[in-house]
Amino acid sequence: MVVVTQKMETQTKVAVVILNYNGIHWLKKFLGNVIEKTTNAEVIIADNASTDESINYIINDFPSVKIIQNKTNEGYASGYNRALQQISAEYYVLLNSDVEVTKNWIAPIIKLMDSDNNIAACQPKIKKYNNKNSFEYAGACGGFIDKYGYPFCRGRVFATLEDDKGQYDDACEVFWASGACMFLRAKAFHEVGGFDWDFFAHMEEIDLCWKLKNKGYKIMCEPKSCVFHVGGGTLSSESTFKTYLNYRNNLLMLYKNLNPEKRFNTIFKRMILDGISSFKFILNGKPQHIFYILKAHLKYYTLLSLYRKKRPHSYKAKLFPKSIVYLYFIKGIKTYNQLNKDFI
User: Fold this and answer.
1) Bridge partners of 144?
2) Helices (H) and strands (E) in the chain, counts
């Protein structure tokens, strides 16, 4: 085992970095697959102060794998920020520990990014591990957000997951790339300050891509590469902490990145929609989540002075100009192909 204690002196072209926190189950299931299917790239584990047997497992079973050990568990955002500061590479591939990769999964995306220095991030086609004909919730075939900050994807709008029939097999510019498997140009990542250190987890990849697009960079999806994602490996949909992070971080992301002319009106309407969404938790027998939505809103107000300082100098990114909530729940539009897509 090699433990990285300072920045790697020699630069590799591609570094595949897997963030781990007490994820020995996923390491046993998928790390061997990643190493077997990964060529011309270095695989590195960034460990967020795990208390299980993750480190010993890697030492014994994969002694050549480098390990970066963070001192505390600071979540996805800060965990990756600290680890990537110690890795010298042209491209980072951030890979969830609950992902199965396929043969030749890296080459098509690196080829695309090599062809255009303005591409800062890219994702593969992401499908469900337990139903390999279906797109996976966290990213599908490239992500977008609507005028109120609601994310959706080619292949996934809210809870509607499409089967993959080749309908999104074209390489396409998108708004955000999934953090489950995200290729990043290292120079661009550090130029915008990496992930928001205060997010902990959830929405951090959308926020990062928004920052990159405000700088004029492109975000892409290259479906010639494909991976399979289990999903929910860290925080399940039952987690009230996950609800809190999603609602809090979405508001902070909007406050920080929205054009000032639209900021107040958009966030006001988004908060109303958050209140309406509370009824979904009641209908699903999860009323305890409502408290965490309220907590997220209150925390948002306490962080305004901090986030005012994080605003960009330019606002180049273009959101989907309509409400995906209205289109989905009122108009019955359930798939990306039914949308007017002239909004990139």
Assistant:
1) 152
2) 11, 14
Determine contact, residues 128/227, Cβ cutoff 8 Å. Answer: no
Rounded to a whole number of angstroms, the CA Rg of the chain reads 19
Task: From 44, 77, 97, give the residue that closes a domain.
Answer: 97
In a domain, 217, yes or no: no
| Per-residue tens of pLDDT for the chain, all 344 residues | 445 544 555 679 999 999 999 999 999 999 999 999 999 999 999 999 999 999 999 999 999 999 999 999 999 999 999 999 999 999 999 999 999 999 999 999 999 999 999 999 999 999 999 999 999 999 999 999 999 999 999 999 999 999 999 999 999 999 999 999 999 999 999 999 999 999 999 999 999 999 999 999 999 999 999 999 998 756 666 899 999 999 999 999 999 999 999 999 999 999 999 999 988 898 888 899 999 999 999 999 999 999 999 999 889 999 999 999 999 999 999 999 999 765 55
> Domains in the chain: how many in total?
2
CA dihedral 155, 106, 190, 18 (to 10 degrees): 90
Is position 301 within any domain? yes
SS3 call for 231: coil
- Cβ atoms of 290 and 281 closer than 8 Å: yes
Q: In CATH, what number is assigned to the domain containing residue 39?
A: 3.90.550.10
Residues 6+ apart with CB under 8 A from 17: 44, 45, 46, 80, 83, 84, 87, 92, 93, 94, 95
**129 within a domain of the structure (yes/no):** no
Tokens 């004909």: give the residue: 133
Q: Is the pTM of this model over 0.70?
A: yes
Angstrom distances, CA of residue 126 to CA of 30, 108, 323, 342: 15, 14, 25, 23
Q: Which domain holds residue 277?
A: 240-320
Residue 198 inside a domain? The answer is no
Of 67, 97, 127, the last residue of a domain is: 97
Q: Are 299 and 273 in contact (CB under 8 A)?
A: no
Q: Are 70 and 47 in contact (CB under 8 A)?
A: yes
